[in-house]
From TrEMBL:
Gene3D superfamilies: 1.20.1280.290. The lineage of its organism: Eukaryota, Fungi, Dikarya, Ascomycota, Pezizomycotina. The keyword 4Fe-4S does not apply. This is PQ-loop-domain-containing protein. It comes from Lojkania enalia. One of its GO terms (molecular function) is basic amino acid transmembrane transporter activity.
Length: 310
């Protein structure tokens, strides 16, 4: 049990970080699924991002099976693939549904415009006998519109600031909660003997991993690194992060950081490090891209903020 194997500080930290990473990955896609449901749309997220990420998860699963990794790692890889499929299916559903709705609306608008055009023409022509009446009405309407927009923008900016503060507070509490769940899970697993510290020397045997599994690991790392690029480009082109869940990327950053830390705290032996290098590249490398998306969230906001800045 827990008392029969000495637990060093490094092994304890490795276990805690690994457990926190596991908790982050389990809850990762839930915020984006909820965001899509609330918006009734998936326009904010790039399908190319999800597709490449899904390919990365498939190669990760194949590499884990080929390498004969522990069942928990394989089970988590299977979970990733199913979760990806659920999110992709939701995005495709909303995209198809909203595209059909837009086509029907466009068709009705075209018919309505054709029917109302003669009536509008007669109303406009009736003002020809009153010089300046149309200009006066137009200028007065413009002033009222400008005043209304100014009041709306001032009130809207206050509401947006409050909403942003509330969202950041909720996300921070969620991240803290995931960390506590992960740490508690590790403590329970250690006390019950489900998890036990592994001597660092045992990691050297992992260097004998099949070459094919290593190649799949590198392919997976390349997919993870490339997946976020379409999303970053889309955010930049739209100058908006509307429709994206900030918590989704916060959990991704947390999961990648703790995953890498869990590996490095276990051992920094050369063979062990090289064996896990593709997974380290895939996890720690994407942290830079997640940070880029955080900057876009801060600069662009939800589209209304970006238009106000411009």
């Amino acid at each position: 049990m827990a008392g029969t194997v000495p637990l060093t500080a490094h092994e304890a930290l490795s276990g805690v970080f690994g457990s926190v990473s596991l908790a982050a990955w389990i809850f990762l896609l839930v915020p984006q699924l909820i965001e899509n449901y609330k918006q009734g749309s998936a326009e904010g997220i790039s399908l190319a991002f999800l597709t490449v990420w899904f390919i990365g998860d498939i190669t990760n699963l194949a590499g884990a099976i080929w390498a004969g990794l522990v069942p928990t790692v394989i089970a988590l890889a299977v979970y990733f693939c199913f979760a990806d499929l659920i999110l992709i299916a939701q995005c495709v559903y909303y995209n198809v549904k909203n595209a059909r709705k837009a086509r029907r609306k466009s068709a009705r608008s075209t018919i309505s415009d054709g029917a109302e055009q003669p009536l509008l023409h007669r109303r406009e022509s009736s003002n020809y006998g009153l010089p300046g009446s149309h200009r006066r009405r137009s200028s007065a309407a413009s002033r009222r519109t400008a005043e209304s927009m100014q009041r709306h923008n001032s009130l809207g900016s206050i509401a947006e600031d409050d909403s942003d503060s509330t969202e950041w507070m909720k996300n921070t509490l969620s991240i803290i909660g995931v960390c506590l769940i992960g740490a508690a899970g590790w403590a329970i697993a250690w006390k019950t003997g489900v998890w036990a510290p592994t001597p660092a020397e045992d990691g050297k045997s992992d260097a004998e991993m099949a070459m094919g599994a290593q190649i799949l690991g590198y392919v997976s790392a390349v997919c993870y690194l490339g997946a976020r690029i379409p999303q970053i480009i889309k955010n930049q082109q739209d100058r908006s992060c509307e429709g994206l869940s900030l918590l989704f990327f916060m959990l991704s950053l947390l999961g990648n950081a703790t995953y890498g830390a869990g590996i490095l705290f276990h051992s920094v032996e050369r063979d062990y490090f090289l064996t896990n290098l593709p997974w380290l590249i895939g996890s720690l490398g994407t942290m830079v891209e997640d940070a880029t998306i955080f900057i876009q969230f801060r600069v662009f906001g939800n589209g209304e903020q970006s238009s106000a800045i411009v």
